[in-house]
Amino acid sequence: MTKLPGTPFRIGLLGTGPWAERTHAPALAAHPDVEFSGVWGRRPEAAAALAAAYGTKAFEDVDALFEASDAVALALPPDVQAPLAARAAAAGCHVILDKPVTTSAETARALADAVTGAGVASIVFCTLRFAPPTARWIEEQAAVGGWFLGEAHWLGALFSPDADSAYAASPWRREKGGLWDVGPHVLSVFLPLLGDVTSLSCVAGRADTRHLTLRHASGASSTATLTLSAPQAASEATLSVHGERGKAVMPYWDGALDAFQAAVDALLEAARTGRPHPCDVRFGARLTEILAAAEAAAKAGAETGTAPGTEPGPEPGPEAVAVV
């Protein structure tokens, strides 16, 4: 879609929940190169309220919003956003998707084919890839290279009894847990620094806690403990890589508004140049493939009651599940 120089890029919003209200809508409304073209939601009254707060139009017909927009940003549950993103792409809209793009590997691959086949640009909003402090750090560590080990602890307290967060009411987060909610963040950092995941194991801990061990194409390995059910006093989000030059610890970041505006900038650049961004729908589909394999591995371990490789007998079981 070609834009005339100086013409604002029209971006609509699909979604009316806390993430849309606190991040997407204010970022779109404040972006100097964007015309916030409207809001659609599954609850028309919520769409009307959010649109009124930012001086834009509420749409009851999502196809009408596509027609009024050059791009759309999606702030919806993953398995709701995937078919709508494909529909938006077919209508000629560039897309900013939330992570994970969906929770089905097959659906993720079909979505990536639909979006790329439509010839539109795409961005998957993995916050750490766009928040200025962490984006710079990732770029710096990728340039250094030589990393052989990654370690991450993402211990969210969203579901702890004393937590007070609007996101705790999210049905999909309740169902899928930290593996799917914060796992994409960790993978979005490890993959550019250590390479694609070639095999993995995943063990279930208390509540939604999952312990991941990953082997990467570079020969490096990584571990990640992920949960949304940590006690408040134990919550943390830390990630480090270790290599020839020592240890590098990812810096702290604060808030998502700047990150989302940077994601919008990335979409505008991809739409203008036709060059895919590294964090596009294909990358998002790969994250889903890895997480689906991890979910299956954790479920298999829970069903057998033993961890792979610990069965009695002279021959050990498989060390890890291949991810293809």
Write the layout of secondary structure elements.
Elements: E1 9-14, H1 18-30, E2 34-40, H2 44-53, E3 58-59, H3 62-67, E4 71-74, H4 78-90, E5 94-98, H5 105-117, E6 122-125, H6 127-130, H7 132-144, E7 147-155, H8 171-181, H9 183-194, E8 197-204, E9 210-216, E10 221-227, E11 236-243, E12 246-249, H10 257-273, H11 281-304, E13 321-322
Parallel strand pairs: 1-2, 1-4, 2-3, 4-5, 5-6, 7-10
Antiparallel strand pairs: 7-11, 8-9, 8-13, 9-10, 11-12
Would you mind describing this structure in some detail?
This protein is α/β, with parallel strands linked by helices and 324 residues long. The protein has two domains: 9-129 and 257-280, NAD(P)-binding Rossmann-like Domain (Rossmann fold, 3-Layer(aba) Sandwich); 145-251 and 289-304, 2-Layer Sandwich (Dihydrodipicolinate Reductase, domain 2). The protein is 42% helix and 23% strand. The protein has helices spanning 18-30, 44-53, 62-67, 78-90, 105-117, 127-130, 132-144, 171-181, 183-194, 257-273, 281-304, and strands at 9-14, 34-40, 58-59, 71-74, 94-98, 122-125, 147-155, 197-204, 210-216, 221-227, 236-243, 246-249, 321-322. Helix 1 (18-30) packs across helix 10, helix 4 runs parallel beside helix 5 (105-117) and helix 9 (183-194) packs across helix 11. Mean pLDDT is 92; it is low at 306-319.
